[in-house]
Amino acid sequence: MVSSNSNADRPVWRPPPWLGWWLLAGLMLALSWYVGTVQRDSLFAQLEVDGRQQLDLYVSHLAGQLDEYDYLPALLADEHRLHALLASPQDASLQDQANRFLAHVNTIAGSLDVYLMDAHGVTLAASNWQQALTFVGRNFGFRPYFIEAMQGRAGRYYALGTTSGRRGYYFSYPVGGGASPLGVVVVKIEIDTLENAWRSQDSELVVTDPDGVIFISTRPQWRYRALQPLRAEVIERIRASRRYPDAELTAVFGLQGKALASGVQILQGAGSDDAGYISLATDMPEAGWRVQLLMSQKVVNPQIWQSRLFAMSLMLLLAIAGWLFAQRSRRRHERELEKRQAMQEALDELEGRVSRRTLDLTEANRLLRQEIERHEQTRDELIQAAKLAALGQMSAGINHELNQPLAAMRTYADNARTYLARENLEQAAWNLQQISELTGRMAQISGQLKVFSRKSSGQRIRVSLRACLDGALRILRSRIEQADAELVTDLPPQDLFLLADMVQLEQVLVNLIGNACDVLVNQRHRRIEVSARARGPVVVLQVHDSGPGIPQQNLEKVFDPFFTTTENGLGLGLSISHTIAQRLGGSLTVGNASSGGAVFNLTLAAWPESAAAGG
Predict the structure, then answer these.
(1) What is the 3-state secondary structure (H, E, C) of 178-195?
(2) Cα 543 to Cα 489: distance, rounded to the nearest angstrom
(3) For labeling, which of 75, 92, 115, 258 is most exposed (least CB within 10 Å)?
(4) Region 245-252 average pLDDT
(5) C-alpha distances out from residue 614 to 233, 328, 601, 608, Å
(6) 153-178, pLDDT tens digit by residue?
(7) By three-state DSSP, how is residue 463 classified?
(8) How far apart are CA 280 and CA 259, in angstroms?
(9) Helix (H) or strand (E) holding 126
(10) What is the distance between the alpha carbons of residues 23 and 556, in angstroms, rounded to a whole number?
(11) 432 exposed, middle or buried (CB, 10 Å; 0-12, 13-18, 19+)?
(12) What DSSP designation does 495 have?
């Protein structure tokens, strides 16, 4: 019994409130960091796609630049003046001829230097023979390009010049002698031009040799350094070859970069302010180069942190919203409890009066149902009235156009019945033919309501101007008659065909002619002239009204949206027409005629066959 009581009195442990908030904060930090990581991977993937395209483009350019000079040493190897000098190296006249020839070739080719070496590597003639730092007399037999050429094959090499101190790429080729060449001709091109082909604010481009030494770089301080630390034996071999004299050969980046799943490598600079680079690389086997594009992470880091901050802010807002919702639910629950208590008290108090109030409640319920039924009936009547009003508005537009054909059809029907009674079949058939034509006219009138319901295809096709104008006039017939305007059309005998969209062109014509009808309402002379002419590759259609014209200060605002000078206009018709004209590859302009009134000029491209006929 004592043990049982002690267990019952033991307090139950409850976690402190702050523990939940700390767990929530940790979860929010983890999720925001994950969102940033996903955003980083997405940005890196896009950078890799863009970087690959840029890298391939530069490599193609680089290979093309090298290929421009690849043929030149082999071509020079057949030059008889070089063969003659190799045969008689002590002949000053032959040396002078070779020097001048090589200088001339160097100028035309745009190379850095062109020179000839004998079988021992001594330079006999050079394009820079007149310069202070001439190659003539110097021995370059230690260069790999000389050794390769003396073995009977074309050589390629890149290095820092020991004499000129300038970077260059060397092309070599054996001269004569078959398996035992008499000498070697060399063409050296400048690497600076290859380096200047790339300029980007957010990326760097480097070209390294097989040892990883940078010899082409858009960042000058990286030249003759390694991307990553070199082994001691590699540094010793490079110094022995004298490829990069006096170069430090220090590393630009750390010992090992971070490789992502996609194969992209992240290189971190030595400086604390360096955000690191995203490295993409490709090889040029023929040149023995490795071209790398280094895109700065400064481009993506702000976006990554923005994503993390946005995710953190969103989760914080959700947490606040959840807390507010919980508080609101708690207060609502408390209010519901209070209401239940109050209702229970009221029910207990009203228990004795239920029977007396039952009849009153029943009567009130009946009256309420009657009121609801009356409101529902009123609502149905209002809906029906709205439907009838809409139907009346639709039928009013075509009532006038249909009355005349209907009256004429009745007359022709009576006449046909009379002629049939008289067995005058010819006259009866004529009256029936008139009825048939009138029904066709009524079909055209009812078809006016569907003209603008057609969906435009948006494609420019062969369109008849006459057909579009006829369609627009059918739509505007009642409006022109209501304005009591005289419509005059002046079209060439041969139909003009446009490269346009029929529905959109009809809409422009309806807007222009309808606008002319509106301005003629209060005018004594009401005349609208529509004319069209082919002018070479275009067709110009004019709509000229006899109205008061357009004030000079309004000419530039006519095509602005919502600009109107009428009380009932929205100011959208001319703006829409102007936009359609531009979309169809044409233009819509406005001006005032010298004889009075406004003139709208619609210029559209003619159908090629029509343009040829018009020209």
Answers:
(1) CCCCCEEEEEEEECHHHH
(2) 9
(3) 92
(4) 74
(5) 83, 79, 18, 10
(6) 888 887 777 777 777 888 999 998 67
(7) strand
(8) 11
(9) strand 123-126
(10) 65
(11) middle
(12) P
